[in-house]
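Our collaborator T.R. sent over the components below with a one-line note: 'Predict the complex.' Nothing else. No constraints on interfaces, no templates requested, no preferences about which chain binds where. So this is a plain run: every listed entity goes in together, and whatever single assembly comes back becomes the starting point for the next discussion.
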Amino acid sequence: MAHETAQPGLWARAQRTSVEQLHIRLESFIVLIVLSAVMAVLSPFFLSLSNFLNILLATSTIGVLAIAATYVIGSGGLDLSLGSVMGLSGVAGAYVAVNLGAPSPVGLAACILAGSAAGYVNGQLITRAFVPAFIVTLGMLGLARGLALVISDGRVIYGLPALMVYVGQGRPLGIPMPVIIFVITAIVAHCVLAYSKFGRHTMALGDSESAARAAGIRVERHRRILYTLSGALAGLAGMLFMARINSGDPTAGLNYELTAITAAIIGGTNLFGGRGSILGTMIGALIMGVLQNGLNLLAVQSYYQQMAIGAVLILAVFIDQYQVRKESRV
Amino acid sequence: MTLLTLSGIRKSFGAVDVLHGVDLAVEKGEVVGLVGDNGAGKSTLMKTITGIYRADAGSIEFDGTDVLPLDPGARRELGIEMIYQDLSLAKQQDVASNIFLGREPTRKLFGLFPGFIDKARMDREAASMIARLGAHLPSINRSVGSFSGGQQQTVAIARALTFNPKLVIMDEPTAALAVREVQGVLDLIRRLKSEGIAVILISHRLNDVLAVTDRIVVLRHGRADANLATARTNMSEVVSRIVGGGDLSAAAMHEQRG
Ligand SMILES: Nc1ncnc2c1ncn2[C@@H]1O[C@H](COP(=O)(O)OP(=O)(O)OP(=O)(O)O)[C@@H](O)[C@H]1O
Ligand SMILES: [Mg+2]
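Returned assembly:
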């Protein structure tokens, strides 16, 4: 057996421990801290409890979408329809509650159902019609957005019942409801991805589809479940957003897939599948949340924020690929 | 007792006709060598047995069950395991995850939620399986992609043996191994045989095939072209059946290469 020629340094050891035990990239954690420090210096409002809750509140929607992105990208797939499906779900829930007069729980369930249905269609098309995920979900991006506009007649649906608004604006113990729901979702998603058979199979699938198939995993069925799950999570994000802004907005979630995928990639999800963790993704989502919040506090125009997010995505993939190449170089 | 019976197996990939009616039988505890030129269809035939490919025609019976309607997972349950030529490992996952992929031991999380992996047990059993094979791996917790080809082959072998198989198909299991490890695999095949486990060995190293098998089947032109009892054949006969006819100069060439 070959011996390591040099003792691994402290940094390498810390990195290995964090990657193996917590499944996160240490770098992203440092980026989060540095970014927060910079924002704290630049803006006197940044370091306050209310702003902290603001960041968490903004992160809750993106975070739920990023969880979906982690599962799907980790499995070697892609879901570009996250933002649009989120918009459709919010409109569906508002329409059912306001226009059809259904009780609040039905309205909330309608959000999740609409999202799941869109995800189910994605999964069917990808695994039964053999259309690539990139095309199917790009098509769904257009379809879901269009459907949201058709249902709402292009207008924002106002006047949600009180219980629905509570889900977005209630603050038990001072903590916003969306943050509570988001954190619970993240914990469950983490346990399932890291420790359950389903989660392990998801990553194995992204690692090597042929290995998963040879091992007896029902690959197509697993993918269908994943896309439906992704849609359901987009529905949950749509529900949280709708309840928070107290209306069904057909343009909600525009370009959110970009932010969600970026959060997942920053968090260490392998763009080509096989690696990823919810813990890492949560750090990625917080980085995106802090970035947006900070740029807002500094009154940077939203056009520039879009540019910043796009640039961060490319940079994150660049760094990841750079490290992969460095490791495989002799 | 016959464990596996293939009859009339046909398979084509679009216009490429690979198998045109293969018949093959394997007895319980028998070691069968499957040889043939590159591209003869050996791997394709084996993948129709494990269910990776669906045969276009023919029947496959294993241990009294018609396995054609079953998916690869169900066929593993029946006791068919295979070490694939490309190993089929999930390179970013660790040793235990690969060995137990699809068959993870589970427990209840917080004693409540089923379907969670018993990682401690997996690691323990994976380590003992590797040790039982007499192999050395740098660390059981590293992703298998960081291992050498031979070490990866060890993981693939361990995966095939962990779940009490009745038939183990080995597609070039020694291709990446050093001399000592090759001997290890041959000993392993003998041990499996003594435990009543059947083995189909695919290898271009005819010396190994002759040393360890009971019977040698030659695949040629999409058919099981020859069926030779190992005790009553020799290298030059096998080679000439592989390259076809009595072309002895071609046979000699092949022998030199192999
Ligand atoms: N998935 C596939 N799609 C199309 N053609 C295939 C596929 N798999 C195998 N083939 C073709 O089938 C033929 C037999 O291939 P196979 O891999 O079974 O040969 P083999 O006997 O295992 O060869 P080797 O000794 O080189 O491993 C080849 O001509 C190959 O090109
Ligand atoms: Mg082959």
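Summary for T.R.: The mean pLDDT of chain B is 91.
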